[in-house]
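Objective 1b of the project was to move from sequence-level analysis to a structural picture of ligand recognition. The entry below was assembled by the postdoctoral researcher (A.K.) and checked by the PI before modelling. It contains the amino acid sequence of the target and the SMILES of the bound compound, VHF.
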Amino acid sequence: MDTSGKRTEIVNKQRWVVKIGSSLLTNNGQGLDRPAIAGWVEQMGRLRAQGIELVLVSSGAVAAGMRRLGWTTRPHEMHKLQAAAAVGQMTLVHNYEKEFLKYNLQTAQILLVHDDLASRERYLNARSTINTLIELGVVPVVNENDTVITEEIRFGDNDTLGALVANLVEADVLILLTDQDGMFDADPRSNPNAKMLNRLPASDERLDAMAGDGGALGRGGMVTKVRAARLAARSGTHTVIVGGRIDNVIDRLSKGEELGTLLLADEEPKTARKNWLAGHLQTCGEYIIDDGAAHSLRTQGSSLLPVGVTGVFGTFNRGDMVLCLDSEGNEVARGLSNYSALDSRRIAGLPSDEIEGVLGYVDQVELIHRDNLVLSLI
Ligand SMILES: Nc1ncnc2c1ncn2[C@@H]1O[C@H](COP(=O)(O)OP(=O)(O)O)[C@@H](O)[C@H]1O
Ligand SMILES: N[C@@H](CCC(=O)OP(=O)(O)O)C(=O)O
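Corresponding predicted holo structure:
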């Protein structure tokens, strides 16, 4: 294929995660927009026919459930939102199953919560199940397991889930289909002169000031999409934020057309281990680090040495994930500790050449080596 003048980062890419947001799937928050779903599935069917592997992350359970239950306004009580999601998820997957079958594609329902991806065992299970489904040619349809979570329902954030799934399957591309044509330099709802962004590195800090929230319904808006793009970038996944109502949007993206906003991953895809560190492991304790250590972690990507640590909290073993907090309690980084909490307390504040004298052994001179350390998103 002639790719000159096209988005080569997207063309011929093998593995896509497509996330369809609530604002798009629903008619003003009421029920599912079935004709629109049929249109996206038809396009995704064509992706599959080209040999592109696909995972779908779909919101819309709450809205579909509200319609089924005859509710016209979105409830505020968490248990009612969760009940609506449980009812609506049936409608949602039934709809996808019916539509994908038209193209001889089987679907599978996957319900996940962030904690599932924080347990090493469940992460590995989810990963191998989804990878197996992809190999079988099945389209996994992922949503949050709303019955057991509260935060994500409250903030309406399936963007993060999309990014975590992209990390999980090491996707090449994450497509966030939404109700705006792309990301603008200001929220177009409140700023009619806002201009759409074409491409930027996901790490570009200017994005933070441009991203607004999702408005009255308290949805994630562009804030969670930018954060998702940064999370996805950690597995080398490029993200496109794009309008789901644009004619044949998925087909056109796959041909390299410059639609929406491309947020690029760093050139160097991080190793699987780093992906894991970035979002998946449960933390077992905390290091409080001084200003000098916080500065060199943030600006030079340095390892954490005992000398920069002023406090050690929690109970952890060597190899466990520990948070690094600055003196004000802000998370600077997280990483795998080379020492248990007990030994860390004994060497905190000391120069590395004194470790052996105190402990009687030295594993590594760092408390956390930079290869096992991931800076936190600010
Ligand atoms: N800089 C921006 N560019 C585009 N949209 C923005 C921006 N800042 C805030 N938004 C808002 O984000 C909304 C989309 O986010 P959201 O409602 O969470 O959608 P979804 O359900 O697709 O995740 C848009 O309707 C828009 O008003
Ligand atoms: N998981 C829930 C809500 C998640 C949600 O709305 O997220 P988003 O599409 O990012 O605004 C649902 O299916 O209704």
